[in-house]
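User: I'm new to structure prediction. If I give you an amino acid sequence, what do you actually give back? Let's try with this one:
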Amino acid sequence: MKKIREATKEEMIEIYKMGYDVWGDNLPYEEYITMCRASKKYKKGKWYVLEATDTKQLLSSLIVYELNLSNDQNVKGIGSIATPLYLRKKGYASLLVKETINKLEQEEKCNNFFLYSDIGIEFYKELGFIVLPNEFQKYKDSVCMYYSKENDIDSIVLDIPDYF
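Assistant: Good question. You get back a string of structure tokens that encode the predicted 3D arrangement of the chain. For your 164 residues, that looks like this:
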């Protein structure tokens, strides 16, 4: 069995390590971990993990940000979705994203989610995210995507967040 839960402080190095091959920018491993630990951005969010309950192994991780946009709606940003290289393509990141959204919808009544995709849009489209129209895109290399159970692009009356 697998469960979604908030990450502990003791697990953060293991979580940072999951994204080293993608976000390490050829830095030496120790330097990359030091950079992650010092990141103000990473400290602003809440980290979640997908854990194998029998072995306690961390299978995937992500961070959720509170987005303080100009209106009073509850909006979250999802980022830094990562799975250890040897566990990729097994559905762990998909399960973590879906279950984290479900958890936040139920517990925090949040039904508006943004993310910026650096890996291409197909993965997130399969999870129900939609690409915002070009006039709302702010970056060349990252595509802003939106998820809501209503999933109606015309009903989005939210400010589009900057990369988070």
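You can read the tokens as a compact description of the fold. Here is one thing that stands out. The chain has six helices and seven strands.
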